[in-house]
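For practice. Any example?
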Amino acid sequence: MNLVILYGIGGLSDVGRHAILAALESRKEPPIIEKITVITEHPEKLNEKNWDSGSCPDGHTNPFDDPENASRLKMVKIDTWKDELPNLSEHFVGASAVVSCLGHRQPGWKYPELKKRGLVAYDGNRRVIAAMEEANVERVVTISSFAINGDRSWPHPASKFMACLFKTFMRKARKDLEAMEDAYVRSSLDYLIVRPVGIGEDVVETGRYYLQVPGEDAVGGNMAKMDAARFMIDEAVRPTLHRCSQTVGSKHGTPM
């Protein structure tokens, strides 16, 4: 099968970089991902040794620099999601699924670059939706956040605190992510909106993820970006959740 992965800048988008690594792991069990097309404004981010993650204390290397990956990886650099991309759909033809990690949830006053260049969840994903429909691709797994669009799925005190932040310091990020979610709901695609809790920069992967079940105790308040990426890849290639959202975290009782 073939997969398309998109990433931008910011914490949520970091999961997209890790999704490339998770997809490359996939040869361990079927269905096998034979081809991975990466679409981004920021291919240079893969050259960074630190991917803002505690999962690799010795740093990362660009997966495109590994000769063993040459036959499986393709990079598509775009200039901006803000402008029309008339040939975008050609990169989705033949894909089995899409993993989209665009946008962020950090406050703009603290991260001016994210305010200027990172608010692309809606602009990017509305173009992704159009490209998928044109290329007849149905399955997409996209990243968002808990505590927006009326979400109360995570029964943890931090959820109320996050909702307050989204109403104050992170209003623009919230509006961007909410508009993206609404675009998927209006589409005919088989979407899954993933709401990770935590994904802190220092969190080390465990190789597991935990789904929040309604009526049960809260999942752990932090998870590694790599574990969030593995969940997204798993749902892309072996779908179990359809046209809905899902909060995902670490083991019950894990502190923030």
In short: The beta strands are 2-7, 35-40, 73-77, 97-101, 139-143, 190-196, 210-211, 244-249. The CA atoms of residues 102 and 160 lie 24 Å apart.
